[in-house]
Amino acid sequence: MKPTRKNRNQAFVRHQRKVAIARKKKIAKQTHWLVTNERYGRLSKNKVHCSCPLCSDKTALIGFPKSQIIRLQSQAEQ
Question: What is the pLDDT of residues 9-24, one digit of tens each?
Fold first, then answer.
């Protein structure tokens, strides 16, 4: 984190952290992950990668990036 914040106060940072934790708690509950109460704080820092519709909206709507399409095509040719 930067040493000084210009336009965000600590309450805003806490709120955004709660939002991130709530979203990841919902994903954990849907996928039956075991996350105990004292480990919820770690959800604000970790990334959640899964193939559920909540996480893969961007890929489903926009499609794969060009680099990944080329990689998939080259694998199919081999």
Answer: 889 988 988 998 888 8
Q: Residue 2 to residues 6, 7, 9, 60: CA-CA distances in angstroms?
A: 10, 12, 13, 35
Kindly provide the b/e burial profile for residues 53-70, where b requires at least 16 CB atoms within 10 angstroms of the residue's own CB.
Answer: eeeeeeeeeeeeeeeeee
Distances (CA, A) of 51 to 2, 16, 46, 61: 33, 24, 16, 14
Distance of CA 60 to the CA centre of its chain: 15
Enter the pTM of the model. 0.52
Residue 55 pLDDT level (bands cut at 50, 70, 90): low
In 8-38, which positions are buried (b, 16+ CB within 10 angstroms) versus exposed (e)?
eeeeeeeeeeeeebeebeeebeeeeeeeeee
